[in-house]
Fold:
Amino acid sequence: MSQYGRRPTPWAGRVGRSVAACVLGLCMTAASASPPQQDRSELKPGTATPTIRKKDPVPTYARDVAPIVQAKCQNCHRRHQVGPFPLETYEQARKRAADIAAVTEERSMPPWKPTRGIGPRLKHDQSLTHAELAILAAWAEGGAPLGDIKEMPTPPKYAEGWKLGPPDLILEPTEAFPVSASGPDVYRCFVLPTNLRRDGFLEAIDYAPGDRGVVHHLIAYMDTTGRARILDDAAAGPGYPTTSGPMIEADELSFWMAGSEAHRLPDGIGIHLQAQADIVLQIHYHPNGRAALDRTRVGLYFSKKPVKQAMHWNNATNYRFRLPAGKNNIEVKANWFVPVDLEALAVCPHMHSLGHDMQMSVKLPSGKTRTLIEIADWDPSWQGSYYFHDRIPLPAGSVVQVVSHYDNSAHPRNPSHPPRNVEVGPNADDEMCVGYIAVVKKGQDLTMPGSRDDLYQTFVRQRERQMRRAMSR
Structure:
């Protein structure tokens, strides 16, 4: 684990480069690694006299750098994407060669926060290898040459707008929602009818925020009761106000926050969407100094192959903790007890601006503990869902554990100046401790006659029992 209470310098020795990182929009892992130093001399056999090796050739953009930029940078750094500028041509990269080398060497870019070597192997890893770091550093130091244009790789083809290509179904509110330039954070739920004639499964869900400057995060729920429509009809303007969730019992489907990327689920796994269900889209708006209009869209991708297992999200959450002003090493824990035999597909740690680090693990019935993920240098600007390369067994009786640390001292990322006592809450200047985990029921086969997806109902009964126990204390 990291050295708790000693925040790893986005505000100290790394100031210059972290500023460059913010401008560049490149991101990296928490661990820092420098390119290996190459020995320029070697001894001839049978002699004691060192001879000087010929200097290694300077990497070129066409042969060495372009493949790295295409694979690890252009996903964000191209037109109409989250990166603040494109890196689609040699000239665009050449002008920023020194900055690219700096922010990649310190691993603030590309964005990949999980600690290397801790926890299971993860999919979609965007971090750079030591060899790639060395190439970028040597290219910048050598004057950022173009090289032989014939060695340039073929530019990748990206789907315009939606990263996974055109969705099968796009849902959006009937009208835009106005967000004031200032004032408190706003939570609003929008009811989006699917009008599906029969049940189906989704292999992916993506989101297109109408105004990324004010959309802090969002969560999509499935309502099969029609109760969200009643709340919507009773409220003035688009949607209805809320402070926590959709204010009804609804199945959480997926979520989006800064750093989130849509991915297709593996074959045989899908998100269950019932016929005539409504998608309830809860959006957290954070005013940023200018008035805005937001009309966030939801893109649904239906499974093209038979689905055996339905994926559901649950979480280990601490709903009661307090962060005293001035303290820089405050530990908060959370647990979730696994009610039936499950398999974990992904995790998503979540905190706000005072978060320092978080580790998620599972304690098995045997007593053995297995780490699932560690974020040693928390950055609220880059939060994502991290999918395991292989499924993680969660036998009934296992406990998903979260251990997190917070820094409520005076630092630039603290939204309160001077620091104030902070408690759990939904606003950007409150705090949260949530370890989301995506699971499927072990052995489930929804292609068999008479089978049904009952995992969500299992989770509902578990929550009801927990509430009754809490009320009886």
The radius of gyration is 24 Å. The chain has seven helices and 24 strands.
